[in-house]
Amino acid sequence: MERYTAGLAVATAPSLAEVGPGGSGQTRSLHSKSSPPPGSATGAELSIIHLTYSYVSPGVAASPCSLRTPSSELAEYLEDHITSLVAGAGSRKSPPAEFLTQDARERFLLLETGTTEEFITGAQQLLDRLMANMDARSKPGFFVAVRRQDGRFLQAAVLKLDVSDKAAAAVRDVASGDPTLEAFKGLLDTPGSLQKGAIHPDPRPYDESELVVGDRQLSEAALFFLRTIDVRQNADPGQATVQVIRAVYEIAPEKAPGVAAALVATTTQVAPIDFFDDNPDLLDTEEREKVVGRLTTGQRPVRDIDPTRHALQVELTADGILVRVRAEDIDRKVDVRPRQGGGWTIEIEVEEEPRRRYL
Question: Domain segments of the chain: what residues?
Fold first, then answer.
């Protein structure tokens, strides 16, 4: 079996809604796609205004959302997570994202500028959606919704903090009562390694991105967080290189090596359709339409690819043996051929003496 692999890359960042009179946060101004939100303040001390969280586990009912008063230590922990996500908007770690529906925007607006009751309503709606989208493959953890203030600006954050196996076992052993973030904080995602989070508004131009989304798990099964918040996030252009070759391998497997070679030779960021227009002999018209159609739909569509940001690799697996090699070296260093009488031979040529280790 042959497959194409990639490393993961992610992060996030926000933009901020202006606080209403007296700093109540009840002034409501839902930004349209055509008008950018106010710019974010910098250097001001950030503070949590509202917080709610619930422990979530597949198949287990979650406690209803209610206001929580964080300890100073917990507040700092959450601020560190949010700050780390915000930083991603200023880098290439957090690709642009947009809401799929007006209802999705409204839910974040309730968190961001609604009354206290509306904040809880918006959080509960998101919690219910999270529970509906989690399945047996989803890790248990904590759903967290935050409203925070930076000077004159408000910001909404939704986090899904995964717990370690040790923490999950500890939660199961709790005889009674609702698990608290304070009790399990040391066993959760550390700031900078958050698996899933979203912040609204986004500090980038509003017609470029509506919210900052961090999602380190890129598999189809892990898209439940994007489905929960009803958001579409562009694929990272480096990671998208792998999505291109995987789509080709599924639709026209015999042509994947040629496409891989063309990707390796591409030195600029380019849209998938333009890549295939520049390389018209790679696929026929029907194959190209299928590949581009698959890449440009779904909750993580490919808008651009940038092969210079990821070293494309090929994996060969057979009989429990794994061979991984850079795509540009596969034809030069690895030879795969059928064996007379059945079976296959894999021949590998290398310059260094192979090293052995036991796992």
Answer: 10-232, 237-309, 313-348
